[in-house]
Write the structure tokens for this entry.
Amino acid sequence: MNTKTSKNHNGALTFIFIVVLLDLLGLNLLVPVQAYIVREYNSDATTVGLLTVIYAAAQFIAAPILGLISDRVGRRPVLLICLLGSAIGYFIFGIGGALWVLFLSRLIDGITGGNLSVATAYVADVTPPEKRAQNFALIGAAFGFGFMLGPALGGMLGNISLALPAFVAGGLSLLNLIFGFFVLPESLPKEARAGQKRSDLNPFTAMVEMFRVPNLGGLLASNFIFLFAFAGMTTNIAVFLIEKFDVQPFQFALVFALAGVVNIVVQGGLIRVLAPRYGEKRLAMVGLSIIAVGWVAMVSVPAMWMVYVLAAISSVGSAFAMPTLSALASNRVTQNQQGKLAGVSTSIGGLANVVGPLWAGAAYDYLMPGAPYWSSAAFLLIALLMVARVQSGGVFAREEAEYALTN
């Protein structure tokens, strides 16, 4: 790769990092105030949960479509339009005025929140196959920053005005849009773009097609299992810790802040060293194993300080698993399928965010408090076995050879 191209790609990766960071920052800005805003119109806890469900459901439908469109017209225009849509959604939420307005805002942002799939495809476009785990880890680091900073900043802004976090989130999206309009190059050459049929825009068609790719179906299924369990634990941990240790909000926030810091350190630096040495498959399996052990141990800890330790250990596991599972999947499709794959992966994540919390809550309420943790560990072991069955080679080997010849 020549120096100029390398610099362009590094600048593009920096922008994608900022896109994902601001996306997650904006989304998490609403976490501390969303329930208070909804209570102005409806006091049911279910209504607050439905706002998250409608966002995840919209993302489930839209992400594969956005990925497919980006395979045809390029990543840049889709990414910029999505940023505009997110800004509009946040501003509508801040304006409010009625419950249906809040649901409309989350619907819009859920549709355009599929830009994470386009961002992932962009990273795959500008990264040689053997380095995708390292660069996908940058997206994971952005997630860590967003989850760590978003709720804290949202809480501070919410003390001034409940609507202020939404307006700040919208402003961040607009700034990102302006920045991207002037500095973001297109990553997908015209000759590498895919043609499409109208039936391709059916998200379920895209899913079926991706699951049929050799060695890819198992990876997508294992990723869904991981995200399903992760979403369930993320929403359930607050109830579990309140009942077991009577924790205060700042203690719970500290658990997430610690997890965010660990994710930043591991995905921002450590993965770049370990992935070339040990390979994505091995790191994914180690990561899933660490999470399973951490969650099983969480059930029986006698003191709150041990929860912090286990949260950090489990975060190491998730920081290993997230980027390596993405890289393993990305290396099984061609360049003009990266958008479709990223869209399907984002859609799978949206579905996991819908059903994971519902399952964890039901298991906690109707079985026993430890049920979500024991069963999640069992699910992760199933995901581990599915990853273990994945074979090397395929598109990855062919792309690696082509990349070496052309650069």
